[in-house]
Design goal:
The protein is an alpha+beta fold and about 525 residues long. It folds into three domains: about 220 residues, no CATH class; about 90 residues, Helix Hairpins (Orthogonal Bundle); about 140 residues, Histidine kinase-like ATPase, C-terminal domain (Heat Shock Protein 90, 2-Layer Sandwich), CATH 3.30.565.10. Helices cover about 55% and strands about 20% of the residues. It has twelve helices and 16 strands. A five-stranded antiparallel β-sheet has the order 6-5-9-8-7. Strands 11-13-14-16-15 form a five-stranded mixed β-sheet. α2 runs antiparallel to α7 and α10 packs parallel to α11. It is rod-shaped.
Length: about 525
């Protein structure tokens, strides 16, 4: 919603003028480039036509001068004049042909002309036709004949090497009978887009002028760049204006959208920020803040009520269960205990039955402890929580459970050397719960095996671990029910004190972990 709202406002306020400005700029740049290119085409055509006319007049002048001088020693720019035999004229009457006769270091052209029955062969320097020495600029002018041979060029080496431009002449159609006498074309010369203009100065020579397309627009590039920067400035101003105008609407709507999302996740009470103004958006923001605060208060009330109802139901259930168990078990248990004591009094000292009767009396005493803990679980006081050292509580419990573990011939190994910190629990309740767990371990562990008791720190918890060996021999349905009942009562007491009981299965037995949160959430070093 946040992105779509911003996009909607920006598109509504910015997109139309930006599109119009961009289109107008692009059209203007395109029209400008087209007009510039057309202008250069026209200017190049006029330029080569003027050069061609001048070149034609120069050739006529040279031919007339050679005819007047005849066999005499010609003066510059004529190098030599000779009569042509009828077989070597090779040119129509009234016409002329120019060839490149240059040798390295000696640029020289031959002009053949025919007037009536006779003809002349005149040797001239290239600059006698057109002097391009020192010519520099964006354009490149040269004179070629119908064979593509370069006759005049700003670079004398091209004339001296008798370099040919036959492919260029063919592509331009400069000497085509159906082609234009003057024309321009866009060609790709040596990988560079180039504009080439040509004009014939006679049947056998033409003037060529070329200019790279990039040079055509070299002077226009600053103008195009200025136009692009102006468009960018217009876009920036439009965006800033839209942001400035939409800020007063976007910010409160964004805050309210985030607040609505938080309410949807169940996070009540978060305000959408200070209310600015007095318009419809401000009133909507005030209403949303009031609704969020009301929902938070209602949620707290409901949560407290649920906790009270759950606690009351748990206490009632535990009380009913404890009362039922005590009622059902107490009478036969007292009878068993009394009969066991009477049997012990009547047995002689060396009787083989005496250990068995003692075991019966111990089990009856253990069952009495379970009943007592059940009774305490249903009537325990919730206000007795104290800050205690968990390892000290475990040491106290081991003292109480020692005789029972000794009767089962279970050796106890403890690791209570490292202090783990203080926890806030009801010491009596936790002591009784741990004692029940030790009684359960004494019943489940293999006789004459070992029990490892350790207290250690894990993240923000203090953990009591009781590891013992259990060979997996079942104790019967009655034994399983009795063990499950003991652990259920102990787990209920531990959970009510903020802890957790977990049982792990190991390769050589089992491990019971009882964890409580440390005061202040201290991390392990």
């Amino acid at each position: 919603m946040r992105g779509s709202l911003k996009l909607h406002i920006l598109s509504s306020l910015v997109l139309p003028p930006v599109i119009v400005a961009a289109v107008l700029t692009m059209v203007a740049i395109k029209l400008f480039r087209s007009d510039k290119e057309l202008y250069v085409h026209d200017l190049s055509a006029q330029s080569v036509e003027l050069i061609a006319r001048t070149l034609g007049a120069t050739v006529e002048s040279l031919a007339a001068r050679a005819a007047l001088e005849g066999e005499r020693a010609p003066s510059a720019p004529l190098l030599a004049v000779r009569r042509l035999a009828a077989s070597e004229a090779g040119v129509e009457a009234g016409g002329f042909r120019i060839r490149n006769l240059s040798r390295p270091g000696d640029p020289r052209l031959e002009l053949r002309t025919r007037r009536g029955e006779g003809g002349l062969a005149i040797e001239i320097r290239p600059e006698a036709l057109l002097d391009l020495r020192g010519h520099v600029g964006l354009t490149n002018v040269m004179v070629v004949n119908d064979e593509g041979a370069v006759l005049v060029h700003p670079d004398p080496s091209r004339v001296e090497s008798r370099r040919a431009q036959q492919d260029l002449v063919v592509r331009l159609g400069a000497f085509s009978q159906t082609g234009l006498r003057v024309g321009t074309r866009s060609l790709d010369l040596e990988g560079v887009p180039t504009l080439v203009a040509h004009a014939r100065a006679g049947s056998h020579i033409a003037v060529l002028q070329s200019i790279a397309r990039k040079d055509i627009f070299a002077a226009a590039d600053p103008l195009i760049t200025t136009a692009a920067l102006a468009s960018g400035a217009v876009l920036l101003v439009a965006v800033l204006l839209a942001l400035f105008l939409g800020r007063s609407v976007i910010r409160p709507l964004r805050a309210m959208a985030e607040q609505a999302e938080a309410i949807g996740r169940g996070e009540f009470g978060a305000a959408s920020g200070a209310v600015a103004g007095s318009g419809e958006v401000a009133r909507l923001q005030e209403s949303l803040n009031a609704m969020s605060a009301s929902l938070k208060k209602r949620e707290q009330e409901i949560r407290q009520m649920q906790q009270q109802l759950l606690q009351a139901e748990r206490l009632n259930t535990a009380g009913r269960m404890a009362a039922s168990i005590v009622k059902e078990v107490n009478a036969p248990l007292e009878a068993c205990f009394a009969l066991a004591n009477r049997a012990l009094q009547g047995l002689p000292g060396g009787s083989e039955l005496k250990p068995l009767v003692e075991e019966i009396a111990a089990e009856a005493d253990r069952a009495a402890n379970i009943l007592q803990n059940l009774s305490r679980a249903s009537t325990r006081d919730e206000g007795g929580a104290l800050d205690v050292e968990l390892d000290m509580v475990v040491a106290d419990v081991l003292i109480s459970a020692g005789p029972l573990l000794d009767r089962r011939q279970l050796s106890v190994e403890t690791d209570l050397s490292m202090p783990v910190g203080r926890v806030r629990v009801s010491q009596d309740q936790i002591r009784n719960a741990l004692l029940d767990i030790f009684l359960f371990v004494a019943q489940e562990a293999v006789v004459s095996s070992g029990v490892l008791v350790s207290v250690w720190r894990r993240a923000k918890d203090a953990v009591v671990s009781i590891q013992y060996r259990n060979d997996g021999v079942e104790g019967g349905s009655a034994g399983e029910a009795r063990g499950a009942l003991v652990l259920a009562v102990a787990s209920s007491v531990i959970e009510d004190e903020g802890g957790r009981l977990a049982i792990e299965s190991l390769d050589a037995g089992s491990r019971i972990n009882v964890s409580f949160p440390l005061l202040g959430g201290a991390e392990a070093n």
